[in-house]
Automatic annotation (TrEMBL):
Segments of this protein annotated with the region Disordered: 1-34
Top-level division of the source organism's lineage: Eukaryota
Identification of the protein by name: Isochorismatase domain-containing protein 1
CDD domains associated with the record: YcaC_related (cd01012)
Domain spans labelled Isochorismatase-like: 157-305
Record family assignment: Belongs to the isochorismatase family.
Length: 340
């Protein structure tokens, strides 16, 4: 169990604009000419603070010199401005920040597009683009347009175990079942080499993680008072894991810490899978309404067996037999069937 320092990573387009939480990786389609669209900088706060370079990091000012008029569009707004001749991508980003910085949600994913006269519509900004003549560009938020498919691979997945602590034992509905399934998940993660991050809510008063869950080899065990698991230390740990795309989330309570963690992660561009048979609350009403709300938000609500089998994906997977031994006996239904 170690804590790793955060490292900035550039994941490619579209990306999260937030300076401290840019560990979301993603990809986007290319242009008709097979050119990759230009990439947004991961740390927008640093981009805003950086002094403007003549070519914005792409190219020096062109032989023509002087300034070029550019129309910067975002949402329903269109604001004319100028940039130096030969300005590149970084300088365009700085200009967008200076014009619209107070309106940008820094945790959403964006792409910069250029209006192409030949197509009479916007196209993704070509890689290496520099401003040489009057043009129109826009910043487009993509998060709400991305369909969540729910595919899981071990290399891009992290498990979050939330507040499975001793003092919750008498209060949480079906807590024994939740512990049993939680242990299955932690064991499966260990077999598949998937990092596990564990939090404990105010352990001084609520105790440590229950002994039934073996925390051997987990990446991080962190005390907290915030309900959400998305803490600076957790973000630093995620930044140190290459290619994180999905979080498998389980623990207690469904309508408090689980819900707030899931919503915060989705807001930062992470695909979230909540394990319904490994999360619960003090009341079934709170539990079931939270799961329904989260599912309506686009979060994937699933089961422990579905998660583990999706991660191995093939009977010929070298770890399939070990995973099969974990799920040989069906997981307890923990009151879920009575509420279907």
């Amino acid at each position: 169990m170690v804590r790793r320092r955060s490292r900035s990573r550039d994941w490619g387009p579209p990306v999260c604009l937030g300076g401290g939480s840019g560990w979301r990786s993603s990809s986007s389609g290319g242009l008709g000419r097979r050119e990759a669209p230009e990439r947004l900088p991961l740390n927008m706060a640093a981009a805003a603070a950086a002094p403007p370079a003549g070519g914005g990091g792409c190219c020096p000012a062109g032989p023509g010199g002087g300034s070029v008029p550019v129309l910067f569009c975002f949402s329903v707004f269109a604001r004319p401005s100028t940039v130096p001749h030969g300005a590149g991508y970084e300088l365009l980003i700085q200009k967008f920040l200076s014009l619209y910085g107070d309106q940008l949600d820094m945790h959403r994913k964006f792409v910069v597009q250029l209006f192409a006269e030949e197509w009479s519509q916007y196209i993704d900004l070509p890689k290496g683009f520099v401003v040489s003549e009057r043009c129109k560009v826009r910043l487009v938020p993509l998060q709400i347009q991305i369909t969540t498919l729910g595919n899981l691979t071990p290399s891009s997945t992290v498990f979050f175990c939330c507040d499975m602590q001793e003092r919750f034992r008498p209060a949480i509905k079906y807590f024994g079942d939740i512990i049993s399934v939680g242990q299955r998940l932690v064991q499966g993660a260990r077999i598949l080499g998937i990092p596990v991050i564990v939090t404990e809510q105010y352990p001084k008063g609520l105790g440590s993680t229950v002994q039934e869950i073996d925390l051997t080899g987990v990446k991080l065990v962190l005390p907290k008072t915030k309900f959400s698991m998305v803490l600076p230390e957790v973000e630093a740990a995620l930044a140190d894991i290459p290619g994180v795309r999905s979080v498998v989330l389980f623990g207690v309570e469904t309508h408090v810490c689980i819900q707030q963690t899931a919503l915060e992660l989705v807001g930062r561009g992470v695909e979230v899978h909540i394990v319904a048979d490994a999360t619960s609350s003090r009341s079934m009403m709170d539990r079931m309404f939270a799961l329904e709300r989260l599912a309506r938000t686009g979060i994937i609500v699933t089961t422990s067996e579905a998660i583990l089998l999706q991660l191995v994906a093939d009977k010929d997977h070298p770890k399939f037999k070990e995973i099969q031994n974990i799920i040989k006996a069906s997981a307890p239904e923990s009151g879920l069937l009575s509420k279907v």
